[in-house]
Amino acid sequence: MNIKTLIETKTLMVQGTTSDAGKTTLVCGLGRVFKRKGIKVAPFKPQNMALNSAVTIDGGEIGRAQALQAQACDLEPICDFNPVLLKPSSDIGCQVIINGKVTAQLDAQNYHDYKPTAMEAVLKAHQRLSTDFESILVEGAGSPAEINLRDRDIANMGFAEEVDCPVILIADIDKGGVFAHLTGTLACLSESEQNRVIGFVINRFRGDPALLTSGLDWLEEKTGKPVLGVLPYLQGLHLDSEDSVALEQVVDKPKLNVVIPVYPRASNHNDFDSLRAHPDVNVQLVGPQLIGAQVTNSELQSNKPQADLLILPGSKNTQADLAWFKEQGWEDYLKRHLRYGGKVLAICGGLQMLGQEIKDPDGIESLQCKTTQGLGLLPFVTTLKANKELSLKNGILDLPGQSKVDIQGYEIHAGDTLINNSINTADIKQVVFDNDKLKASFGSGVISDDNQIFASYWHGLMDTPAALTAILNWTTDAKDGCEFKHVDYQALREQSINHLANSIEQEFDWEKLTAALNKFNG
C-alpha cells in the first residue's frame, strides 16, 4: 500500500451497481485499514436515504451507517459525515435533513428542485472535512446508472464530477449477474464519468477464486479497468445496516422468544441488533414487506407466533404506522399477549402508540389526521412538533428485581409526551433516570404497575451489556444476573469491523489500486 498516493488522492469514492452491493461495508473496512496505516481518514456520504439514524456529538442527525464508518475511523460521528439525510415519511414524500437538522418536508419533485441547495451543503461539508483530514472515503447511494436520477445528482457521479475524485465500482456476485452489472453500469455513464472509474471490486464471493479467473480477465480486457479485489462472503458480521431489515436465523431452544412487528415506516431497527446477536434469544420480525420473514400475517391472525416479549419499535410516521398496526390485527394480539402475562417493550414511536392520544395540530405527519387515538395502555398524550429532540443520553436503569445499571442511549423524535392528568399516574413509575436532571422525565423510561410494559424514548437501550442483561432478566422475571449470558454488542461490532478490514487488507490488490490512482491523478 502506497500511503503517499492515498493521501495525495484526498477523496476516494465507492459507488455500487445496485443498492446493498457493499458500499457501506467497503467504506467501513477501508476506513479501518487506512486508520491502521496512520492515515487521518473520515467517512462521507453526500446524500443518504434511510430511517436508521444516529445522533452526533455536535447535536445533529446522520445516517446510522455513517456512525458505523466513523467508528471504523476511530472518530465520534459529526454532521459533516452525512450532510443530507432523507427520511421517507410516505411513498412519495420525505423529511429533508441538512447538516443534521430538519429543513423541509418535500415530495420527490420538490426535492428535485431543491437539490442545488442541498448540493451547496454537501460541497461545504466536504470542504470542511478536506481541511481537517488527510483522506476522505465517500460512499455513493444506490447506483449511478439510474438514468432518471442523473439530472442534478448529488449522491453519485454528480458529486464525483464536482469534486473531481476517482471512483471504485462495487458489485455483489452473490446476487448473480455480476459482470452484466459492472459492464452495464459502466455503459450507462458518460465518457467523463467512465474515465473516473478506476477499477472494480467484486463482493460476497463464495467458492474457489480460481474459478473466477477467466471472468476477471474478460472484464479487465472488455473495460480496460482493473479488478482491485474479490472480497469473500463473510458470515456473522455484526454491523449496523443502512436501512434494510436483516432476517433472523431461528435459535435452537431459546430462553426468550421476541416478536417485533415491522411497520411500513419502522425506524432505528438497529435498536434490536444486540437481541439478534444473543445466543439465548430468538427474534422474529413480522411485516408484509419482509420477503422470507419467518412469520406471515395469516399466521399472526391464527394466534401465532407466540412471544415472551413483544417489541413496538420506533416509527417515522407514528400515526400511519399505528393505523397499520391496528389494521393488521396487532392490537388484539397485543391485548391477548398482555392478558396471558407477556411483556412489552416500546421504544420512541412505540411509546407514543401506547398512550391515550397522538395530536398533530401542525400537520407534521398528516394534514388530514389532527388527532389519533392511541392504544390506551399508558397515561400519555403526545403532541407532534416540528422541532426534533436530538440528544445523547446517559443515565441509570432501575428495573424491578434487577440491580441498578448504567445505561446510554439517544433520543430522536418530533413530539412532546406529557402525562394525561385525568389518568391515574400511579399506574406507572419511572425506571430510567437521566443523568441530566434538567431533562429528566417520564419519557426517559417508565414501567407499568403490573410490571408488564416498559416504554422509553431512548434508542440504544440494549447496547450496554449490563442493561441488555437486566432487560432480558426483567422479561422472564429472572433474578438479577442468574438467567442470560453476557453479550457485549459493542465489542462484537468492533470485532466485525476488524474482521472486515482484515479481509479487505488481504484481498485487495494494493499495487493495482496505487497504479490506478496514479493514472487518475495524472
Kindly summarize this structure in a few lines.
With 522 residues, this protein is an alpha/beta fold. The chain is built from 16 helices and 26 strands.
Describe the protein's architecture and organization.
With 522 residues, the chain is α/β, with parallel strands linked by helices. It has two domains: 262 residues, P-loop containing nucleotide triphosphate hydrolases (Rossmann fold); 228 residues, Class I glutamine amidotransferase (GATase) domain (Rossmann fold), CATH 3.40.50. Helix content is 32%, strand content 27%. It contains 16 helices and 26 strands. The strands form six sheets. Strands 15-13-16-18-26-25-23 form a seven-stranded mixed sheet. Strands 2-9-1-10-11-12 form a six-stranded parallel sheet, sandwiched between helices. Strands 19, 20, 21, 22 and 24 form a five-stranded mixed sheet that branches. A hairpin with a 4-residue loop joins strand 25 and strand 26. The chain is globular, with a radius of gyration of 24 Å.
Number of strands: 26
Spell out the CATH superfamily of the largest domain.
Answer: P-loop containing nucleotide triphosphate hydrolases
CATH topology of the largest domain: Rossmann fold
What is the helix fraction of residues, given as a range?
A: 25-40%
Number of helices: 16
Largest sheet: 7 strands, mixed
Task: Tell me the structural class.
Answer: alpha/beta
Estimate the mean pLDDT confidence: 90
Distance between the termini: 19 Å
CATH architecture of the largest domain: 3-Layer(aba) Sandwich
Estimate the strand proportion. 25-35%
Regions with little confidence, pLDDT below 50 for 5+ residues: 290-295
Q: In order across it, which strands form the biggest sheet?
A: 15-13-16-18-26-25-23
Net shape: globular
Total number of domains: 2
Radius of gyration: 24 Å
Please write the CATH class name of the largest domain.
Alpha Beta
